[in-house]
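Example record for the data management plan.
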Amino acid sequence: MTWCCTEVTTHRIKKDGAAIPRSFHIFSSIQTSAAMPKSTTASAHCTSTYLNLFEMFDKAGVPPETRWRSLLLFFREMNDYHYLDEDQKIAILSQMAEILKNKQYTEDQLVSTIRKCSEIFSKPLVNQLNSMVHETSSVINQFFNKLSSRYGDIAHLETESLSIVAENANSTEVLEKLQSAFRRVKVLFEEDICNLENLAFIDPLTELANRLSLDMFMKNADARWQSERHPIALALFDIDHFKSFNDTYGHLIGDQVLKVVGVHLKRAREELGRETEAMAARFGGDEFAMVISGPNAHALGGVINRFCNAIKNFNLLIRDTEGNVEKNNLHITVSAGISVLDNLSPQIRTIEQLFERADRALYHAKRKARARAVVLKPNDRYLILDDENDDAA
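Corresponding structural encoding:
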């Protein structure tokens, strides 16, 4: 893919002797044919593309004011912005259609449009933040419940200790009873330590590892790669159309879907065996990850392909509060992107690059191969996995 010449963004283009106002950097997102070389021909094609766009704007009644045309060019390139989901792109394009239909190119309308776009861009982040706040609040409540319970245990220990001493039994008997009472409280505190570790490192909804656990795992895996060249395979995936599912059935049902994905992902991790250095984790929202470090890294493609198929074939049931089935035969799918850091991938040197390539593979899956896994190969080609090539990662 060849990206358009930068002179369009830094100079005015002359057409019939009239200067066309330049736009800001968004022009650089216009793309030419992948087969077109980086040459004068590409530059001329790019200039012609802009001239045609300006003619289209003129016919649509768009004023020559730079900001409006820049904004519409930004809207026009929605499909190239992989960080936007399909719902966001549809909402943005609806904004563009409304602008062209109403032809109200006022300052107030420009400000209003930019504000609406900002809300569209930030909505997934706001939703994810709200989900994180909700889950964090749940963790904090669990912590304070434990703390409150232990205050009661300590108060009971004090009362019990005084009662034992007041019995006026022989010193050996008193000591044994006090030791027994303190031992019970000690066991409770040890259990609390384990529970607090789970609160810190385990996602409470799915019971998978959380982002903190994943970060620690990746740090150790990176150290093994740097010192011993142990390969690392990473899969990133999320639930297809999860927002629409939540909007249709509600967040409580959505939470049940996340639990279902968590159960299947734990099974996928178990498939690798305990001897394999691997982790299944939930990032937050409907985003998940699985990583393998070591000689079995290239088995990840097959594991994730089977995981995607298992989710696709799973029959979801929605029950009412009394346990009666309200909806049957519902299905969800997940799309996954996979990348590998090994000696065959010289262009990948860091964990950050590994994540970036897995994210690119996920974006390709969302666009071209929903419900399946896609591997971004060392030659930068995308491989869509199926039952015949699922070990190609």
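Summary line stored alongside the record: The chain has three domains: 7-105, 131-201, 211-384.
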